[in-house]
Design a protein that fits this description.
It is a single chain. With 399 residues, the protein is an alpha/beta fold. It is 41% helix and 14% strand. The protein starts with 5 loop residues before the first helix and ends with a helix. The structure holds pyridoxal-5'-phosphate (PLP). Residues 39, 100-102, 126, 172, 176, 205, 207, 235, 237, 243, 248 line the site of pyridoxal-5'-phosphate.
């Protein structure tokens, strides 16, 4: 009998991947689909980083299993970066390099969460947070921010959600899916709450650190009162356009770093050696390509903001980072076109794919079923065309 474990059977398929699959099917039929559904930079990995990988291959000495937590020089460079840019006190002993930030997060959850432990997830949230808490048999507790506050969960909301079962909290800033960036004051208030609960570990996902339009990126791990409670997650996928290279890392208190190394040592071992050599180049070389990409994202954000503002009945706000818009589109629920009624965000996303030939992601995947997520990691031309198509398709929906 094809019987899956309860753990896997109960796991939702990633909504972003499901939507991309549907879009691919349309494309195979020759239909011009504009994809705004994936969380992936549309830039190529900067050349000097790729050259670093080539040089490592040519050196012919990076073929053995790499050390489980990552090469020492890479971990040292990452620790220096975290001290210099993030004001986090650490050494290479706090760093574990993994196969993407996704694995880093899973490593941490498996290392600290017992079945029945509660994990507070700032909502709207990145899809995999829920899934990985579920896999560890922890209990996800969603604490949702309000759109009037760019969907940012507040320190007061956090405090109210903490119980004696709370083991961890997790959030991303800049946020996927909302693009919100928590300010220094907001994080200071959160740190104050956490400092009262020394048994709680905070997982601060900073993978969009370099795509921040408000100037200052603040790391929760830089607040001294919680430095022993914070795991900072980061990686190379977004800021360095290296999604496929699969390099992420954590900076964690040593006991957690050791546990993650133990866990990783059993399930994957050290990550790809050549990708690590490329990551070392990415982190130590001039960051000009990263800055240029950020400028391009900012320009596109402004472009999409103007175009979205032209669409009636959408509740929107200005995202401060990452490369997503997450508007509230619930005013369109219950409206119909040609006998087809759109009842929720899932149906609206499917309607936009079928009618506008634009793929977006339903907000229900991120804990906000009144929203849809649009990624603007796409060309200006595609963005203009996609927003025009969305506007036209929505205009067809009548009450
Ligand atoms: C908030 C967030 N964290 C982590 C990741 C995973 O990054 P990586 O490619 O390093 O696994 C993503 C990717 O979409 C993300 O959006």
């Amino acid at each position: 009998m094809n019987k899956l474990s309860d753990r896997i059977a109960g796991l939702a398929e990633s909504a972003t991947i499901a939507m991309a699959q549907k879009a691919r099917e349309y494309k195979e039929k020759g239909i011009n689909i504009i994809s705004l559904s994936l969380g992936e930079p549309d830039f190529s990995t900067p050349k000097h980083i790729a050259e670093g990988a080539k040089a490592a291959i040519d050196e012919g000495k990076w073929f053995d299993y790499s050390p489980v937590p990552g090469y020492g020089d890479l971990r040292k460079a990452l620790a220096e970066k975290l001290q210099r840019e993030n004001n986090i006190k650490c050494t290479e002993n706090n760093i574990v390099v993994s196969t993407g930030a996704k694995q880093s997060i899973a490593n941490v959850m498996y290392s600290i969460v017992n079945p029945g432990d509660e994990v507070i997830i700032f909502s709207p949230y990145w899809v995999s947070y829920q899934a990985v808490v579920q896999l560890t048999e922890g209990i996800p507790v969603e604490v949702k921010g309000d759109i009037s506050n760019n969907f940012k969960t507040t320190a007061e909301q956090l405090e109210a959600a903490i119980t004696d079962k709370t083991r961890a909290i997790i959030y991303s800033s800049p946020s996927n899916p909302t693009g919100a960036v928590w300010s220094r004051e907001e994080l200071a208030a959160i740190a104050k709450v956490l400092a009262k609960h020394k048994n709680i570990i905070a997982i601060a996902d900073e993978i969009y650190e370099y795509i921040n339009f408000v100037g200052e990126h603040v790391s929760l791990g830089s607040f001294p009162e919680v430095a022993d409670q914070v795991v900072t997650v980061n990686g190379f996928s977004k800021g360095h356009a290296m999604t496929g290279w699969r390099i992420g890392y954590i900076c964690a208190p040593e006991w957690i770093a050791k546990a993650c190394t133990k866990y990783q040592g059993q399930i994957t071992s050290g990550t790809n050696s050549i990708a690590q050599r490329a990551a070392l180049v990415a982190i130590t070389a001039d960051q000009e390509p990263t800055r240029k990409m950020k400028e391009a994202y900012l320009r596109r954000r402004n472009l999409v903001l103007d175009l979205l503002n032209e669409i009636p009945d959408i509740k929107n706000y200005t995202p401060s980072g990452a490369f997503y818009f997450f508007p509230d589109v619930s005013a369109y629920f219950g409206r119909s076109s040609e006998g087809r009624t759109v009842n929720n965000a899932d149906e609206l996303a499917m309607y936009l794919l079928d009618v506008a030939h634009v793929s977006v992601v339903t907000g229900s995947a991120f804990g906000a079923p009144e929203c849809i997520r649009l990624s603007y990691a796409a060309s200006d031309e595609d963005l203009k065309e996609a927003l025009k198509r969305i506007k036209d398709a929505l205009a067809k929906l009548k009450k």
